[in-house]
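Trying the structure run again after the queue cleared.
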Amino acid sequence: MSREVRFGEALGFWLKLGFISFGGPAGQIAILHRELVERRRWISESRFLHALNYCMLLPGPEAQQLATYIGWLLHRTWGGLAAGVLFVLPSVFILLALSYAYAAYGRLPVVVGLLVGCKAVVVAIVADAVVRLGRRAIRGRLHLLLAGGAFVGIYVLAVPFPVIVLAAALIGLAGARIRPGTWSTQGIPPEGDGGGSDSGPNAVPPVIRDDVPAPDHARPSYARLGRTLGAGLLLWLLPYVLLASRLGSGSLPVRQYRFFTGAALVTFGGAYAVLAYVTQAAVHVFGWITPAQALDGLALAETTPGPLIMVLQFVGFMTGWNAPGPQGQLASAALGAFVTTWTTFLPSIVLVLAGAPYMEILRGSRVLHGALSGVTAAVIGVILNLAVVFGTAVILPGGIGGGISWFSACVACAAFLAMRRFRIDALWVVLAGGLAGLAFRAIS
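Done. Tokens:
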């Protein structure tokens, strides 16, 4: 490294990032790129893209994992932990307060009106995600077939999400070996790319450059890998044992602990894919929450900073609120929120810290990115399933034969147009939808 970034300086940035990271995964990645590649020059363009590609391969929130990866490159394990934790910490408390307000006062007319408009906007946001991500991920007929097969598998045949992801990864891997030119170039910078914006006679060289050898902590070590995985397992096991001993292995918090740990390890493709999997299980299998509550949670998560996957904290909160234990309704809800947040983000940080040294020596592997392209294509079908489920619940609240909610349909269409045609940020569209719902409630 030609110059260094002080740990205190990085700490201040990661904390600031936790308060300004609106806009979902795409917006958060854009903020990271603008701040770290273009403005602060902490990392080169190519190294940034390589880190992003690895994080896209992992289950969990890719923007938070990308921050963790860069924090680790800069300041070892403590840097990665600081970046990963501070990225989500502000949103934990903000969403906790919003979840309580929703649970305690959600039936008030003013809240109902706000949510009616916000939910219609959420349908448009998910539909926009299908279009936006689909244009990047669908690169040929085979990708299209993977996306369509994933939609049919999860919507019609109720195939488990992990099975869909595994099948897509294997197909993508096989495709990369057979047809490398069409499967494995997604997201990889061109050969010889010296860093994109790093070039130019007057450009300030980035701290982490392409032509500088990896630091000592970025070199693979089985001892370091064992310590990282061991520490992660211990941090996961201690709360689990405590909950099981105090509440019983069959109690709701313990079952939440197991389920959301599994979800964190198998849900590839970001928040929308995670929510599709969790909604399928929490609503239709376990009966923990209602479809309307899942949709309301996504609307709340869209208005807070931090990863959109924070919606799972809302799911955990409402699960405890709907089925309180002996400790009382609010305590059960808060415990559910803690369990969900801990089991969602602990694996995502551990996976980055454990695998990053090995990814540093695999930069440019096209076979690896072939597997990614298959998973990404299948995830489009999973997100389409989410759009159909949410759209049906909002626009056809009484079912196929129950009539159309024309207000919701119009708001959803207007929101979709605002984001696609006029590029208005999703946060402002959600707030506008809430105000429209409030006005509609007042005059109806």
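The chain is about 75% helix and 0% strand. Worth checking whether this holds up in the mutant runs.
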